[in-house]
Amino acid sequence: MTPERRAIVVKPLLVWAALIGLGAISLGYALVPAVPFKPLLSLSVVVIQASLVLGAFMQLGKASALVRMTALVSVVWLSFLFLMSFADLATR
Amino acid sequence: MSSRPVATLVEPFEEPERQHEAMVFGLWLFLATEILFFGGFFFLYAVARLQDPSGFAAGGHKANLLLGTVNTLLLMSSSATLTVAERAIQAEWRRAARVGIVATLALGTAFLLVKGFEYHEDLSEHLFPTMPAFPFTAVGAIRFWSFYWTITLVHAVHLTIGLAFVARLLWLDRVGTLGPRWMVTEATTLYWHFVDVVWLLLWPLLYLAGR
Amino acid sequence: MRSDDTGLFARAPGERSYLTEGTTLRSWLLSTDHKRIAILYAASITMFFFIGGAAATVIRLELFTPKGDLVTADTYNRLFTLHGVIMVWFFLVPSIPATLGNFLLPLMIGAKDVAFPRLNLMSWYLYVIAGCFTLAALLLGGVDTGWTFYTPFSTLYSNSYVLLAAFGIFVVGFSSIATGINFIATVHLLRTKGMTWMRLPLFCWAMYATSLVMVLATPVLAMAMLLICAERLLGLPIFDPRAGGDPLLFQHLFWFYSHPAVYIMILPAMGVVSEILACESRRRVFGYQFMVYAMLVIAVIGFLVWGHHMFVSGQSPFASMIFSFLSFVIAVPSAIKVFNWTGTLYRGTIRFSAPMLYALGFVGLFTLGGLTGLFLASIPVDVHLSDTYFVVAHFHYIMVGGSVSAFFGGLHFWWPKITGRLYSETFARSAALWLFFGFNFTFFPQFILGYLGMPRRYHEYPPEFQVWNVMSSTGAAVLAVGYLMPLFYLTYSLFHGERAPDNPHQATGLEWTTSSPPPKHNFLVPPVVETEAYAYHDWDEAPGAADETMQDERA
What we know:
Chain B is mainly alpha-helical. Chain B has helices at residues 16-51, 53-61, 65-90, 94-124, 139-174, 182-207. Chain B is elongated and about 60 Å long.
């Protein structure tokens, strides 16, 4: 196998291993009884996992500014929904 | 990626770079709409969970952690195999591409089968809120299970559509045009990874909520 | 039909255009040519317009008399629901973008087609399929929830075809999204050489801003409709109050889309009006840059004001105040545009052609509608006016007085380009005047009715409101004439109209540099742009000085 071909197989494999490892941490922590901040930890793990998929698999880091802006804008707009609806729900 | 196969041009593009830019941009615009689409569901989840945390957790406790975790593993792996396939196509390494695509199809189909089995298990435990034998009365639990069925069905529909697109890649390989149409592969894999990311977020929200 | 036939389509023997390339039904239904898709859309939205209009006709007939004697209350509910659903999603949202936008956007930027022509065709088929679902709901007996589908009535208690209609709206949302994605990619990536962002015609900017809103808002509607379907079909208690469901939760999701949707409906109209006003007054658009920023600011802030539809629904006063404040803020860019249109007209050489009459009508009617929006943005006033005819009048002034006027104006303005024919200017001007006067007779009395307290969505009312209702219904008859007239003279022009030259209005803009109608690939040679938009006169020249000879040639 040429080095290029080896990289094609190995790089995704490494990312896959990282995703599994992170998932294991999340699962393990969730199963331990009576520890704090479980949702916070599991969601933080998801953020890291998502960043790995977005960066390493979807190559968002190497994409054009236009594409990265698109991804960012959708998240910002979603935050409008969350923030302003919660402004209502939380202050009733 | 230094040398990619010569790309097939589609109307109205006259240069491959422009076409590639357009396809990636167009697909991310679509993913932006999907982010907002699923985001609305997550908003509902947040509201439901914050309004009755104990009821919600009680409902979530009955979610099948084993099957959910198996599915997460399957989907994570399918993302990896499809990435291998995508890069292999761009390097014109057909055998690895074919193996990667078939593996992705297998893993994705396995996900749907496990999900179907899980649904069967859930129904046999009467975990559908309209069933008279639904075991919970807490508002949070009812809302957890309403959310569970809706979001997993919607995700499964997206995954099935993704599988159809991945299967199309196999077809393109069979007719020998997969190489020149490597941009189509890129678009397909972006969609597939997105379906994966949504599941990565769903897994702790659905299966770790009650722990 | 041979291509050298000077029948319906060709201007001269042997001339080829997008109309002559392929004359079978199949060539039309499977065409990926943006111009043909625009015409497919035009035909469909016209059909839906008249269906929605038929519902409105029955509504206004019922409201002639205080008693509910024409239809039952239940039928009346179904009528106004049908009217709203069809007019919003199957007429207004696609009208300018999918017809004029599809036809003109690639031409105006000097491109051969949109970025994704097959996606464009698919968006039309999605629209048609969605229309079938909604028409099915209608034919089976209709929906009685109002176009707003408020829960828990729509999910738990309504005995009507909510599932079918909600699913139809879900599908038409994807048509919208497809168009939006296509336009955004097209404007970013297919502009011809020399066409920089700040040289784009304002119509292109309007299409771009509208597409941003379509792409970011519609998915949330899709989700809201899907949830209604899930609750109706599977019985899942999502909005059921007994399971903790909050009616306001649905309203937040619904209005997160539906408020930006009104900007989807008005931004394209603003683009059309800018084009017409500039050309027919022989003037550059006053404050081009601010016109661009205003549209973008409207598109963004439009996402932050949705709670003003929920002031009386139980929303927290704190949130209501935020939404109210932002609703006042969003009036500012709209006002800037109105001032700039006025500035464009100032010292211009005005041609009172039919498109110009529609455009001028727009400016006045939009201003009135917009100002009455400020009344409603004020919470204490809204408490009094909410769910009255004041609201109905407000949004009809903007949607009909604004968007529909602009749509008609644009249809007339670009008719020669699209069809290669000229219509009768006399008939067109009178139709424009019928529309303007009929519109005001119909909807101005409704402001008064609302202020006096008449609720909306009621098929009967106290006798003291009758005089205004009679005025409104009579006005509706006049308005209907204004809507029907173009059907006749525009159709007539297709068969017997004078052939149009390439640039009958002497307008600037790349679409006017190619033939009327354009060839299949728009331009024989890709154009190169060297000047900014609306170069009707030099910066230091008095407007109109250069073209005294170009007065109205078709009086």
